[in-house]
Design brief:
The structure is a single chain. This protein is mainly β. It is built from no helices and 11 strands. The mean pLDDT is 96.
Length: 114
């Protein structure tokens, strides 16, 4: 079955960086776009970034554009989210998705402190 396992979350000071990883299994990874979403306490889950199956196209929420970079390694069946210049408002649980919400991982907590 489809499995998505996120890792790399943690506590970081504002201005710092983190790199999230999502290891996929159970489907033909290279055939699907992959996405990252996040959900802050009391808020709805929101789109962060997505990458096409061919790596040619990437998409970002305006709130993270210029600070976050999504990438993928089809040979390793892994999608990454490099997060730089982190802000307090980036604090959330970050979820990996197959496509735009076809399947979800369990999430990884990112906490940005002042």
């Amino acid at each position: 079955q489809v499995q998505l396992l996120e890792s790399g979350g943690g506590l970081v000071q504002a201005g710092g960086s983190l790199r999230l990883s999502c290891a996929a299994s159970g489907f033909t990874f290279s055939s699907y776009a992959m996405g990252w979403f996040r959900q802050a306490p009391g808020k709805e889950r929101e789109f962060v970034a997505a990458i096409s199956w061919s790596v040619e196209k990437t998409y970002y929420a305006d709130s993270v554009k210029g600070r976050f970079t999504i990438s993928r390694d089809n040979a390793k069946m892994t999608v990454y989210l490099q997060m730089n210049s982190l802000k307090l408002e980036d604090t959330a649980v970050y979820y990996c998705s197959r496509g735009l919400g076809m399947n979800w991982g369990q999430g990884t907590q990112v906490t940005v402190s002042s």
